[in-house]
Amino acid sequence: MKKLISFCWAISLSFSLLAQNNVVGYVYEDSNQNGKKERREKGIPEVGVSNGKEVVLTNSKGKYSLPVGSDNIIFVIKPSGFKVPVGENQLPDFYYIHKPEGSPELKYKGTEPTGKLPKSINFALHKIEEPKNFTAMIFGDPQPYNTTELDQFAKGVVDKAKMESNISFGISLGDLAGDDLDLHPPYVEILKRTSWHWHNVMGNHDMNYDATIDEHSDESFERVFGPSTYSFNHGNAHFIILDDILYPDPRDSKGYWGGFTKTQLDFIENNLKHVDKDKLIVLSFHIPFLHINENGFRNSDRQKVFDLLKDYQNVLALSAHTHLQRHNFYTEEDGWKGRNPFHEYNAGTTSGDWYSGKINEDGVPISTMRDGTPKGYALLHIEDNQYKIDYQVIGAPKGHQIKIFNPKVVANNRGTGSGIFANFYMGDKNDLVEYRIDNGPWKKMNWVEAPDPSYAAAVMEWDLMEELEPGRRPSNPVNATHLWRGSIDTKLSVGKHKITVRAKDMFGRTFTETSEYTVAEPVAY
Fold first, then answer.
1. Do 60 and 136 have their domain in common?
2. How many structural domains does the chain have?
3. Least enclosed by CB within 10 Å: which of 12, 141, 188, 467?
4. pLDDT tens column, 132-153
5. Are 514 and 410 contained in the same domain?
6. By C-alpha distance, which of 250, 273, 275 is closest to 262?
């Protein structure tokens, strides 16, 4: 009898230990939206739930079970046609942090001890009509280093962006703060000025730099924003949010490197097993995939993602980090084996050139980026499983997509080395950009990889000042990847002449901009 009792106790103990190593719960339709699962509220089947590595689907009653360790974030993968609750901080509430001992001691606060795992961790969803055509707002690198720059972000960007209508949600692509992680909570407060919720990507300036292992580099980020790697569905699109910073750099334990951990790659693979091939896949991360000889990104990680996505015909990646704007297209030469080139939009930033430049009428730095792109935000328009992207320059009309630089006056019938330059902010070198003078014939402009002369002239103003002005000298110009050049005609009548530039983007849309110059009689000497 004693042996039987001992055997039963051992079995009971083993089941108890097993239960403690697994998290269980329900995904349910919260019909009264009180955040509590009640007996009459039904579970939702076939919904993904993850511990950051494994992904399981709920059963017919909405129940799931997942292995859990001592440092996990359990989250639901929002299905289309549902929404997750949004808290007072305007951030989606779709996760549970499980850190029984809390975060390690770091300079910036992490998560307090969460204690014993609850008996059931449930996730509430609300059923909604979710159209397949929608718009998401995309921010790149707010990156305020202090409260002054945080106020400039609020006044110069958010107070303008919040006037947009019909935005389903926002994605901020990392560097939400500039190393001071105490700015994360007030940053969240500023985003609350918009009427939509935000998904926030972790950037290299959002890390705990005193962490000694990569797993601890996002402790403060997790406390405020939740998991740094997760996914969700909206319409016929599947979004994957990724922390792509390896810290410390595994090559020499100094600095950081672009890439993914094995756990993250396992999550992507396990997650995609439950995503239909006809979905639009949208990846959002901070450091772009673009690199030469692995200087910025670990190539094996990029290749693994390429291999996992090769059977998806509609794929888009969103990145930031560079404080420039460009489109990167990856082909078979880069290891991408999909039918169409893999498109990465490296988004312009809301901080522009790090809050530099002259002060505008709103009391905010102009902050034009080093490639001549004005600071702004992007609008990702999704129609079923296709997409288009608009770039909205802060303070400019929606149609403003081109900056023209040309001489103000040229000598009649005299040759000149001057030219007409068109910075097409959302352009790619394969786009068609043309110009004409007055009502003359349209002529093709030549794509050039050179600094934007308009931006270079603005920087030179600071070097020629005899007295300092408010603001800070911008960074030196770099080559733009969206600049075109045309010749200027001097064999015209004396007087003013109109320049018209038109550009057709990769989505088939045409934009125009105009400028003018004067043809004058040469001055005798």
1. no
2. 3
3. 467
4. 999 999 999 999 999 999 999 9
5. yes
6. 250
Cβ 97 vs Cβ 73: under 8 Å:
yes
My answer on whether 286 and 421 are in the same domain is no
State pTM to two decimals: 0.94
- List alpha helices for 407-523, DSSP H: 453-464
Q: Do 308 and 166 share a domain, yes or no? A: yes
For the stretch 65-108, pLDDT in tens is: 999 999 999 999 999 999 999 988 889 999 999 999 999 999 99
End-to-end CA distance of the chain: 120
Which positions ≥6 away from 306 have C-beta within 8 Å? 330, 334, 335, 336, 337, 338, 342
User: Based on the domain organization, do 479 and 497 belong to the same domain?
Assistant: yes
Same domain, 230 and 304: yes
CATH number of the domain residue 106 falls in: 2.60.40.10
The three-point CA angle 264-198-360 to 5° equals 120
Answer positive or negative: Cα dihedral of 394, 399, 402, 406: negative
Long-range CB pairs of 429-433, under 8 A, 24+ apart, other chains included: 429/481, 429/482, 430/506, 431/503, 431/504, 431/505, 431/506, 432/503, 432/504, 433/484, 433/501, 433/502, 433/503, 433/504
Is 13 domain-assigned?
A: no
